[in-house]
Input
Amino acid sequence: MKFHFLYSFFITFIGFTRTLETNETVPEELKLVFVHTVWRHGDRSQEGHLNNDPVDPSKWIKGGGGYGQLTPEGMEQQFILGKMLRDRYIKTGFLHNFYDSQQIYIRSTDVNRTINSAFSNMLGMFSSCTSRPGIDYPDIPGWPRGFMPVPIHSSGPANEDCVASAFCDCKRREALLEIAHQGKEFQDYIKSEKYLNVTSQTSKLFNKTFTFDNLWKVHDAVYIQLVHFPETVSNQSWYSEEYFKDLEDLERPSQAFVSGLYNPPIVNGINVQREIVKTRGGPLINDISNRMRTKANCVKNDGKCDSYHRNLKYYAYSTHDHTVFALLVVLGLEDIVAGPEKHGEWPDYSSDILVELFHNSTDGRPYFRVNYLKNINSTFETVTHLIKGCEELSYCDFKVFESKAKEFRPDRPIHEFCQVLPGDENRVTSWFKEFLHEKVGLESSVDRKYWYLSYSFFLLFLFK
Ligand SMILES: *[C@@H]1O[C@H](CO)[C@@H](O)[C@H](O)[C@H]1NC(C)=O
Ligand SMILES: *[C@@H]1O[C@H](CO)[C@@H](O)[C@H](O)[C@H]1NC(C)=O
Ligand SMILES: *[C@@H]1O[C@H](CO)[C@@H](O)[C@H](O)[C@H]1NC(C)=O
Ligand SMILES: *[C@@H]1O[C@H](CO)[C@@H](O)[C@H](O)[C@H]1NC(C)=O
Ligand SMILES: *[C@@H]1O[C@H](CO)[C@@H](O)[C@H](O)[C@H]1NC(C)=O
Ligand SMILES: *[C@@H]1O[C@H](CO)[C@@H](O)[C@H](O)[C@H]1NC(C)=O
Ligand SMILES: *[C@@H]1O[C@H](CO)[C@@H](O)[C@H](O)[C@H]1NC(C)=O
Output
């Protein structure tokens, strides 16, 4: 893969300590061999200007100025996250106590705030007294003591990087969303009284038509202004906690739909859920799974291992709420963000997923563990046991992870796949649907459980 952008930055050590106890005892037979980490950037300025926006564009001066930039608050969050990761992986001796270019690879989307998040994170991770002047950085007057450049890689514009950004341009996904929007669940949503009330109220307030497609812009602006300009927002005649809660309540289903979460997952005979997820979390989980497989093979047979993979131990993706959520969806973990009652809520700033690979010396096989951090005020929690196939386990057979990757693997290389519109081959056996419709009299939008019921009925029919 070609990486077009290479960024460097400087690491410093600052007199900032925050000790975190890691209290996870790993079974004796397991040895940590590789870590993938996928985080969301930290706090940022709002994404764009609204008509009648209470905050003037000139007010957004933080973090380089302008919209969508990582703020100092966001830098601090990532710095703290970097410290937490340092406690987990450097203090424990898994990684060297300085930036080792052979061990670590940092990949960001090519967006200011994710690149700056990676910078800030590395600063927290490697701010250590063991950086060696003359080896890690030049030992010259004027060079800040302890500052050490670390490369942050990026693979092309975010709208073309389907591995690290789940929202990359994809015609196929657009077409699938259109089909999905014909389903009863989505139709009920956009016909609900609350949806109609809030979108029409919002459209009037901000003198622009707002629908499920762009309502996030208002939610985003209000959410962020409440952080950075709380007096200005709460002073607006239209602002009330109730109005903001309405925006949140409408955003959650909308975010679930964009992510491919539909109930039932089949609309007009197409499994829109699986097909959409293939274009969002699919490329990322396969990237992770392939690297873990290579690494697991390396551990088993060092002779067949190339030096790049022999030394590599830590791979980070600096990304967006879209991407962190997309990976959770692939693993069936979407409700760990805010609980099932807030289904569809996306991950907070500086939330983080860890996918750890272990070698089990008893059976010589690879195992994995998944941890999730809600935000920097939280602690990493092991969530492996919530993955289907890993019930009650903290460490699960790597085969389960590979089967998830396979289930959501794009049918072709993602850029080609995104050009292919869904067609008959994606139909959930159209003959079968016709059969249901004609002989059993069921509509296509029947609830999932009835769908299975009639399937059993049909099997009975066949084998009688
Ligand atoms: C750490 O683990 C031990 C043993 O499982 C447990 O008793 C203790 O409460 C844990 N401490 C924290 C802070 O979670
Ligand atoms: C970075 O920020 C500048 C200033 O806001 C903006 O013009 C530019 O488009 C941003 N670039 C990316 C890739 O986000
Ligand atoms: C919609 O607005 C009407 C009129 O303002 C109000 O009576 C009704 O309670 C609102 N419905 C919801 C679900 O918010
Ligand atoms: C609303 O926007 C339109 C242009 O889109 C403009 O002509 C009109 O004056 C605006 N109305 C108000 C009240 O700002
Ligand atoms: C809030 O509104 C009052 C009265 O309209 C005004 O005097 C005050 O300056 C406003 N405060 C802010 C922070 O905008
Ligand atoms: C390691 O492998 C052995 C043999 O298959 C198994 O009994 C044990 O549970 C494994 N350890 C973990 C933590 O899964
Ligand atoms: C973390 O806690 C601090 C102090 O309670 C609070 O100000 C901050 O908003 C919290 N951050 C997040 C991301 O929840």
Notes: The radius of gyration is 24 Å. DSSP finds 16 helices and eleven strands in the chain.
